[in-house]
Design a protein that fits this description.
Chain A is of the alpha+beta class. Chain A has twelve helices and 14 strands. Chain A is globular. Classes of the chains: A alpha+beta, B alpha+beta, C alpha+beta.
Chain lengths: ~280, ~800, ~160
């Protein structure tokens, strides 16, 4: 189980990476924690691998103007330990320990996870729940895409062939911010059977701007909009019932669709409790 | 040498002055393993060595219409591209049958498929290249035209008249059938106040050894010898088979087994691709290496279990079990695996069901059918987890039905500790077991009454915990009855040769092998104790057919009980030889002397007389000073094979305490206990760790592991992300304890302990889950693994 | 420039190494095959089993999910180097005392993973220890002995600090 031959180039800069992407069957390598496995199994066989590690412009965590910006090359371990993320993007902090294992988190990057867009991964759902946006650089310059418009299909995103995901931006949390995160994975660190990332603003006794983003239930992370409406009004039971029309999970090797749908309801009740609690 | 746990045996025969029996001596091979200085087969590199990769059939059943290897042969680094037809000129096919499993049939299997592939993953063509990567590159260039055939993938319909027969020459898809009736089951069921009937289903498992299968074959055309570095449990068996199928004499084949990264029965079989490697080496006259990658491991390492057992139990209101009945069906691969066959697991299910209990009324049928899936064969605790879960599942369902405590029902039916020798309902013979002592110990060790109270209190709070048990019997120390009588050249005996070197240290060459169980340490303990030296002075040589006495290797929990006894006897024999020479030197009668801590002493007073180094010095360098006619024999060999009993059965009982999240169907394992009786405990720590590791393999079966096939014979989860092995976070701590009933067949009295954990754990967890969910009116769960989905269905939530 | 072969210079266990590697060669294959450091093992090659765990620039990584080419300029440490330096002698002694390995194939990766937790100081809970090694597969032991050994070393080290 060895990768098919490929050429390797270390990108010296963002522009260099974009330029290299112009070549035939080129692919970006960030943390490599998903990509390398698919290369080893020859499930993908690019002709050129462009290593982004070392492009300093892709790193860094910054808070400005009510927004937290996280460089695409930020590693999971950095995010897990970041005081800024804990404070300003608490949902991401909540999700971090569920991702893989220590050696994976030491290497894997946030941008890599988002760009890979595994439907059972935590971060895409977090970004969707946070109404975050993704900064993309391409041959024609930079653009910004909302999380909602980024995840297009199974392992499919708005990234074009010569695009590089450079950063993500999410609104910085305020004292009214409420977040919740829970998932069911068969074993600790596995991809989830079903997971739920949620964000809202406390609004009196209710919740405003509630966004429930499920993962592991479809080709992309999925908003449960009817459940959001019910839960915003404090009706947990109705919200769980509404999931029947919000979600249509299909079976995978770990669970059938009906089980996933049921577990989605269990998660909703658990996350609803988290959302009701003020942040510590 | 630090001994972590010190409880020297009180048994007089073993109670030598510097005995290591019953003491937790650390294993001598650990340091190299921890420093990255071990030598696994995957680490072996030889001059001119080439690497093999295989093109494997993507279809479960297909005619191979043509193979075009021209492009592959031109690829960089390629040494050879070899088809099954070409290789069949070098190595002959085999048929995996045993004559004592009457009616067992199979078809000839080739090292590489010839004309037809019979499972998805079967090797169809080999590529040998300078590196594994280049071999894989060239595999992609081999053009194979297949004609897909109907794949037989459902055991339930494999015998239907309209189902394709995989091997037409065999007449049908039935590999093996056994029917057994004992006592009067019909009358037994009539006499019952309650009958429980259900169907138990067991997932298809595989071993997932951390080091995949690995082999380096080196045919030296000059010496006309084949040296095979192989991660195997049975070097002499493989030596015989390599020689036989390559047309060589056994002495032309040397099998070397160094460190082995896990075995569990996976590495005790003949694998077609490994046979292909020895043939390729012979063909190419150079070393060829093959290390299965993880993806090919999943489709070629033997699978196991995958049984469906319809079962019934009859019970009276006073708890007396009146009858058992099972109907077992299992679908193996397209071939019975060579040479141990794929009929053994079903045969064991028939042998072991009902084994711990007195009820003699028993009706059983087991059928084994061919399927177009990967082959199945013996894996840790062969048949035990199935028979135990069926028996113990029935026992607890019966207890629930008549409203009796499950331990109490066992007390009323387990064979009494003083009733031995005895036999199980299938006729298996027990020398001496201790079911009741083990149960009593477990009861107090786990504080059963306290746990029941806690369980009841938590139920009031909506927390559902369950307690489940599994009593079991375990096959260990197999005699020739297991394989030899069926015609397989698998040694039931083992030998040990012990020799004194010129400094007073001892070498022990032994036929059993080490894959981490601790056979090396146990052998050293036996030799050091019997001969009388500090254990640091014993060096154990294993895993080399050129340099060890002929033996069976390590499987079926035989290494300590059989190999240990051979080592013990050889150590004693050498002691006699050495004191004879010492007597000559000292002008003393040999029977007044002994060897203790490496020194020849007066037996009665313990007074030191002469060091072993001095005896060796005289014997080796100044034999001229010995009296005329005295010849020192500082080597002794002894062999041992169990004769009085076909198997040395052990027994035990396990308990599981777990919590079911009734919202999600997730199970949290809280505690696990095992009390077992493996006879004399040579090394308490090693026995406990065999139990713990075995339990966790059984917990994997209960909750996680299953090879999922679709109806076209494609394995859907053949990787480590999707086939779920137990990882640290989900596993509980496990408490172990022992009752000691030595076997009288050997002086050491040791039985085996490798299967016990795996045998009992799945049934135990099943019973605990059902115990947890019973108050909620859930249907009994009997279909492993118990996934959240299945539990939610039983609760009516999905 | 992109190449199928790359020149790399790195330190491995403190030794400076200059090699030309195929771009596709994973770090673990490079260590095992080019440098004969066979203590890092190949168990699954898809990042699940943890047998290939090595340290790169001070932190543990999967040796099968990184390319050798990516290690140009890096500091790589393997079980051989960490053992020889004596850094985990206490942990190895605890593994021996507790028989926390059987076949030993997972052990190098397990030791390095445990050491990363232990270097953080303090006495982690058994759950935390289990979580730390949750990505390291051991088929033999059932994990309890490993957890015991790591816990014992954490206590010893904390004791020694006092």
């Amino acid at each position: 189980m060895k990768p098919a031959p490929f050429a390797y180039a270390k990108a010296r800069s963002l522009d260099h990476a974009i330029e290299l992407l112009g070549r035939d069957e080129a692919r970006l390598l960030a943390g490599g924690q998903s990509l390398m496995a698919t290369l080893n199994m020859r499930l993908s066989a690019p002709k050129l691998l462009i290593d982004l590690n070392g492009v300093a412009a892709l790193g860094g965590i910054a808070v400005k103007d009510g927004t937290i910006e996280i460089g695409a090359l930020t590693r999971h371990i950095e995010a897990e330990r970041s005081a800024d993320i804990a404070k300003h993007a608490p949902l991401i902090a909540l999700a971090m320990p569920h991702i893989g294992h220590p050696a994976i988190r030491n290497r894997g990057t946030l941008g890599g996870s988002l760009a890979f867009a595994d439907p059972a991964a935590e971060l895409p759902a977090c970004l969707l729940a946070l109404n975050g946006e993704l900064e993309i650089a391409g041959p024609k310059g930079k653009r910004t895409v909302k999380a909602e418009d980024f995840f297009k299909g199974l392992f499919e995103t708005a990234l074009g062939p010569q695009d590089v995901l450079t950063a993500i931006r999410v609104p910085a949390a305020t004292k009214d911010t409420r977040v919740g995160f829970a998932e069911f994975a068969r074993r600790h660190g596995d991809y989830a059977m079903v997971g739920l990332a949620a964000a809202a603003r406390a609004d009196g006794k209710g919740l405003a701007g509630l966004r429930l983003a499920y993962f592991g239930v479809g080709a992309t992370p999925v908003r449960a909009k009817k459940a959001e409406a019910a839960l915003a009004n404090g009706h947990v039971d109705d919200a769980v019932t509404a999931l029947a029309s919000d979600l249509d999970p299909s079976a995978d090797v770990q669970a059938d669709g009906a089980t996933k749908r049921h577990l989605a309801g269990v998660l909703l009740r658990r996350v609803a409790k988290q959302l009701m609690e003020p942040r510590a | 040498m630090k001994i972590t746990e010190d409880s020297p045996s009180a048994l007089t025969a073993l109670d030598r002055p510097n005995s290591y029996i019953g003491r937790s001596v650390p294993r001598p091979n650990m340091a190299r393993l921890m420093q990255g200085r071990a030598q696994f087969v995957s680490d072996v590199t030889l001059p001119r060595m080439a690497h093999a990769a295989f093109v494997r059939s993507p279809h479960a059943h297909a005619k191979i219409k043509s193979i075009d290897s021209s492009a592959a042969k031109q690829a960089p680094g390629v040494v050879a591209v070899v088809t099954g037809a070409e290789l069949s000129k070098v190595i002959t096919p085999w048929v995996g049958v045993l004559t004592h499993l009457k009616g067992l049939k199979s078809a000839p299997q080739h090292a590489i498929a010839v004309d037809r592939a019979c499972w998805a993953g079967e090797a169809v063509c080999a590529v040998v290249a300078r590196s594994r990567a280049e071999a894989e590159d060239a595999c992609e260039l081999v053009q194979i035209e297949y004609e897909e055939l109907i794949a037989v993938t459902d055991a339930e319909t494999a015998l239907d008249a309209k189902t394709l027969v995989i091997h037409p020459e065999l007449g049908d898809n039935l590999t093996f059938e056994r029917v057994h009736t004992a006592g009067n089951p019909e009358q037994g069921f009539k006499a019952a106040d309650a009958v429980v009937e259900t169907t138990f289903v067991f997932g298809r498992h595989t071993g997932v050894t951390n080091e995949p299968r690995a082999i380096v074959a080196d045919w030296n055309a000059g010496d006309q010898r084949m040296t095979v570095y192989q991660g195997t449990q049975a070097p002499h068996m493989m030596q015989n088979l390599f020689a036989k199928h390559l047309g060589l004499q056994e002495h032309q084949v040397r099998v070397l087994t160094k460190d082995v990264g896990g075995s569990f029965g996976i590495k005790v079989h003949t694998y077609a691709d490994e046979m292909a490697i020895v043939a390729l080496s012979k063909l190419l006259k150079r070393p060829v290496k093959f290390v299965a990658d993880r993806i090919e491991s999943f489709v070629t390492d033997i699978h196991a279990r995958d049984h469906r057992v319809k079962a019934r139990i009859g019970v009276k209101n006073d708890g007396t079990i009146t009858a058992w009945e099972i109907d077992d069906l299992t679908g193996i691969g397209p071939y019975s695996v060579y040479p141990r066959t794929s009929g053994i697991e079903a045969n064991q299910v028939v042998n072991l069901t009902g084994g711990p209990y007195t009820c003699p009324n028993y009706k059983a049928r087991a059928r084994v059918v061919f399927l177009n899936k990967n082959v199945m064969c013996q894996y840790r605790a062969v048949g035990h987890p199935i028979a135990t879960a069926v028996t113990e599942g029935l026992v607890e369902l019966a207890a629930a039905k008549i409203g009796m405590d499950p331990l109490e029902l066992r007390r009323r039916n387990l064979i009494a500790d003083d009733a031995h020798p005895s036999q199980g309902p299938s006729g298996i013979k027990f020398e001496a077991l201790s079911h009741h002592a083990a149960l009593a110990h477990l009861d107090s060790m786990m504080n059963y009454a306290g746990l029941r109270a806690e369980q009841a209190a938590l139920r009031q709070k909506g927390i559902y915990r369950g307690i489940g048990f599994a009593s079991f019997v375990e096959v260990t120390n197999p005699s020739a009855a297991f394989y030899g009588v069926g015609g397989a050249k698998i040694s039931a005996q083992d030998g040990a040769t012990v020799r004194l070197d010129a400094t007073g240290a001892v070498f022990c060459h032994i036929g059993v092998t080490e894959q981490g169980q601790g056979a090396e340490a146990v052998t050293a303990q036996c030799v050091a104790s019997a001969f009388g030296v500090p254990i640091e002075r014993v060096r154990v040589i294993m895993g080399d057919t050129d340099n060890t006495p002929y033996g069976g290797g390590t499987w079926a929990s035989r290494a300590a009980g059989i190999g240990g006894e051979a080592a013990w006897q050889a150590g004693k024999a050498l002691r006699q030889n050495v004191v004879a020479i010492a007597g000559s030197i000292l002008q003393a009668k040999p029977d007044t002397l002994d060897i203790r801590n490496g020194v020849v002493v007066d037996r009665d007073t313990g007074k030191e007389r002469i060091g072993l180094d001095e005896v060796a010095r005289i014997a080796y360098f100044r034999p001229d000073t010995l009296p005329t006619g005295v010849q020192a024999e500082l080597v002794a060999t002894r062999h041992y094979v169990p004769r009085a009993w076909a198997f040395s059965f052990t027994n035990g009982i396990q308990a599981s305490y777990l919590e079911v999240d009734t919202d999600s169907g997730f199970v949290k394992l809280l505690n696990h206990w095992c009390v077992e009786d493996c006879g004399t405990v040579i090394n308490p720590q090693l026995v406990d760790e065999q139990i713990r590791g075995g339990v966790v393999q059984g917990l994997g079966a209960a909750l996680f592991e299953q090879c999922v096939y679709d109806d076209r014979g494609q394995l859907l989860n053949g990787n480590m992300a999707d086939y779920l092995v137990p990882m640290a976070m989900e596993m509980p701590d496990i408490e172990c304890a022992h009752v000691v009933t030595p076997t009288a067949d050997s002086e050491l009295g040791a039985k085996g302990a490798g299967e016990a954990g795996t045998a009992g754990a799945p049934g135990c967890v099943m019973n605990a889950i059902n115990d947890a969910l019973r108050p909620l009116g859930a249907a009994a769960l009997t279909d492993m693994p118990f996934t959240p989905g299945k539990i939610l269905r039983a609760l009516g939530k999905v | 420039m992109s190449e199928h072969r790359c020149d790399i210079k790195l330190t491995v266990n403190g030794e400076t190494i200059s090699e030309t590697v195929e771009a596709r060669t994973t770090l673990v294959d490079f260590l095992r095959e080019a440098l004969s450091l066979t203590g890092s093992h190949v168990g699954c090659e898809h990042g699940v089993c943890g047998a290939c765990t090595v340290r790169v620039d001070g932190v543990i990584v999967r040796g099968c999910l990184m390319l050798a080419a990516q290690c140009d300029g890096a500091k790589v440490e393997t079980i051989e180097g960490v053992s020889d330096a004596g850094e985990i002698a206490d942990l190895q002694a605890a593994f021996e005392r507790r028989n926390a390995l059987q076949c030993g194939f997972c052990t190098p990766g397990m030791l390095l993973t445990a050491q990363e937790l232990l270097r953080g100081g303090g006495v982690p809970s058994r759950d935390k220890i289990r979580e730390q090694i949750s990505g390291n597969y051991c088929r033999c032991t059932g994990y309890q002995a490993i957890v015991d050994a790591i816990e014992a070393v954490a206590q010893e080290r904390a004791e020694a600090k006092r």
